[in-house]
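Weekly sync, protein design subgroup
Attendees: M.S., D.O., the rotation student, P.L. (late)

Item 1: inverse folding check
M.S. brought a backbone from last month's batch and wanted to see whether the design step gives back something sensible before we order anything. D.O. pointed out we never logged the input encoding, so this time it goes straight into the notes. Structure tokens as presented (147 positions):
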């Protein structure tokens, strides 16, 4: 999780810095952090539309110029031809519903998150898909092991 937090420092988001790692067989497959797509001006230059509109956290994701950390990790893996099926996502925040749908279709097996996120539908869909979701705090700061 320390590496996940370090990755989150690359975030260009003005509201929340999130980092994600895709891990399989103790190897880092891909990393991601939230921010604007490559070649697009950062929100520090353009301003945060969600902030300007007072959009609460967890709502109206389409009003953001950036991608989520989980999305960027999936995209990085795809660009490099890396299969994420069976991988574990370590993330500084539990995934939103949009990321959850992508994680399910990418074949992610487990999610370990540091902090919660206000998205019950996401948690319900992860459970329905058979993806194990664990708070990092529940594993006593030890590496996650599926049983």
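Designed sequence read out in the meeting:
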């Amino acid at each position: 999780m320390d590496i996940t937090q370090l990755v989150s420092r690359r975030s260009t988001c003005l509201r929340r810095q999130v980092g994600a790692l895709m891990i399989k067989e103790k190897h880092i497959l891909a990393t991601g952090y939230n921010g604007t797509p490559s070649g697009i001006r950062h929100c520090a230059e353009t301003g945060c539309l969600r902030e300007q509109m007072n959009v609460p956290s967890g709502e109206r994701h389409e009003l953001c110029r950036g991608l989520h950390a989980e999305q960027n990790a999936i995209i990085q893996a795809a660009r490099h031809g890396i299969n994420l099926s069976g991988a574990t996502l370590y993330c500084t925040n539990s995934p939103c519903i949009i990321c959850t749908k992508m994680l399910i279709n990418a074949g992610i097996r487990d999610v370990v998150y540091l902090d919660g996120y206000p998205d019950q539908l996401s948690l319900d869909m992860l459970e329905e898909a058979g993806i194990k979701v664990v708070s990092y705090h529940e594993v006593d700061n030890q590496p996650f092991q599926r049983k």
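Discussion: The two ends are 19 Å apart (CA to CA). The first helix runs from residue 2 to 8.
Action: P.L. to compare against the previous round before Friday.
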